[in-house]
Write a structure and sequence with these properties.
The structure is a single chain. By secondary structure, this protein is an alpha/beta fold. Helix content is 38%, strand content 21%. The chain contains 10 helices and 12 strands. Helix 6 links the parallel strand 7 and strand 8. Helix 1 crosses helix 9, helix 5 packs across helix 6 and helix 5 packs across helix 9. The protein binds 2'-monophosphoadenosine-5'-diphosphate. The site of 2'-monophosphoadenosine-5'-diphosphate has 16 residues, from helix 6.
């Protein structure tokens, strides 16, 4: 049976095995999907051993997306743009690296939440690994403006400069953010560290859609704040399922229906 894994550290919490098991059942594909915890300094060795042993594909999660970018022998254009890889696929002539995170976010925003991104004023909070992968896919949707705001403003400005050829993107410090925005996406790791996010008052307000790329307890501080300010609040569970569906498509040539899987995960 074709074997797939999600590689991370830690990886015990990953919901990817459950998602891909549901995709496999739904599409009638016979495959095995497991978790693989690699040592923090041992991604390359773990991935090499997995593919040498006949593994067909891998999802890559924190903290290994940059390692996977270096490991892949070929890259899709969107992985090259993101500078990070979350999906590896065995090919006859090597290992292909792809990045489905941005497509997953856009699919969730447009397809599941019904948001119009064309002409929207979008604020992306954070300029780390999670933010990198979604800038180009957001700009492709032709927002009126995309502001990247980060605690360390230089990182936001650098990230914006990298993508300035693709659309109206600017980088700034968190405290200098000026709205109004239609959509505010949290791509920081502040709540993972149990810290608060110094977003100016008024950015989250009625009529604003707030979105946290994390899900579960990690998303809650930002979403609770959004709700308290009267904004609509959405976690990143839909993005997780959508990026998985894009990976499944790359591996199996079939894109599973995501809505029933999102509903099942929410219910469990
Ligand atoms: P990831 O891959 O999860 O994005 P990362 O590359 O370490 O991890 O980036 C973490 C992001 O969260 C950064 O944008 C970071 O801001 P800095 O660049 O200023 O470090 C942001 N972040 C983490 N804790 C934060 C906090 N308490 N307030 C605001 N931003 C925070």
């Amino acid at each position: 049976m074709d074997r797939y894994v999600v590689i991370g550290n830690p990886v015990a919490h990953s919901r990817s095995p459950e998602i891909h098991a549901r995709f496999a059942r739904q599409t009638g594909e016979a495959l095995q999907y497991e978790r693989l915890e690699a040592p923090r300094d041992g991604f390359g060795a773990a991935a090499h051993a997995f593919f040498l042993g006949g593994g067909r594909g891998a999802n890559v999660t924190l903290p290994f997306k940059a390692d996977a970018f270096a490991f892949a022998s070929q890259l899709t254009p969107r992985a090259r743009l993101a500078g990070a890889v979350n999906t590896l696929a065995a090919r006859d002539d090597g290992i292909l690296g792809d990045n489905t995170d941005g497509a997953g976010l856009v699919a969730d925003l447009k397809g599941n939440l019904g948001l119009a991104l064309a002409g929207a004023r979008v604020l992306l909070v954070g300029a780390g690994g999670a933010a990198h992968g979604v800038v180009a896919p957001l700009l492709v949707e032709r927002p009126a403006r995309l502001v990247i705001a980060n605690r360390t403003s230089a990182r936001a400005r650098e990230l914006a400069a990298r993508f300035s050829a693709l659309g109206p993107v600017e980088g700034t410090g968190l405290e200098s953010v000026r709205g109004p925005f239609d959509l505010v996406v949290n791509a920081t790791s502040s709540s993972t560290h149990g810290e608060s996010l110094a977003l100016p008052d008024g950015v989250l307000a009625p009529g604003v859609v707030a979105y946290d790329m994390a899900y579960g307890p990690s998303a809650e501080p930002f979403l609770a704040r959004a709700r308290a300010a009267g904004a609509a609040a959405n976690d990143g569970l839909g993005m997780l399922v959508e990026q998985a569906a894009e990976s499944f498509l790359l591996w199996r040539g079939k894109r599973p229906a995501t809505a029933p899987v999102i509903a099942a995960l929410r219910a469990s």
